[in-house]
Design a protein that fits this description.
- By secondary structure, the protein is α/β, with parallel strands linked by helices.
- The chain has a single domain, classed as Rossmann fold (3-Layer(aba) Sandwich), CATH 3.40.50.2300.
- α1 packs across α5.
- The longest helix has 12 residues.
- The chain is globular and about 30 Å long.
Length: 97
């Protein structure tokens, strides 16, 4: 599974990426990019998780994700705030089906 985290600038989200990698399978990829790069990188991923600080952009992000047949949703504020990597990986798996 290839997980793309989208955020405003990529700073705090990189901390969550590191925590998610602790619960990822060996073949899993977890990376973060700023929202401005979404369209240029989305095809390299299976699922898109959105940082809660840019939840107001979810409609636009989902439009892009839908066009690329990728599920996308906002990471729960508590999961993000507490940097719960396990829960974020579970969310990605659930979104992917």
């Amino acid at each position: 599974m290839k997980v793309l985290l989208i955020c405003a600038a990529g700073m705090s989200t990189s901390l969550l990426v590191n925590n998610m990698k602790k619960f990822a399978d060996a073949q899993d990829v977890v990376e973060a990019f700023p929202v401005a790069q979404l369209e240029s990188v989305i095809d390299n991923y299976d699922v898109v998780l959105v940082g809660p600080q840019i939840r107001y952009k979810l409609k636009d992000i989902k439009k892009i994700a839908d066009a690329h047949n990728k599920p996308a949703d906002v990471i729960d504020m508590a999961v993000y705030g507490q940097m719960k990597g396990k829960e974020a990986m579970q969310m990605a798996k659930k979104l992917l089906g």
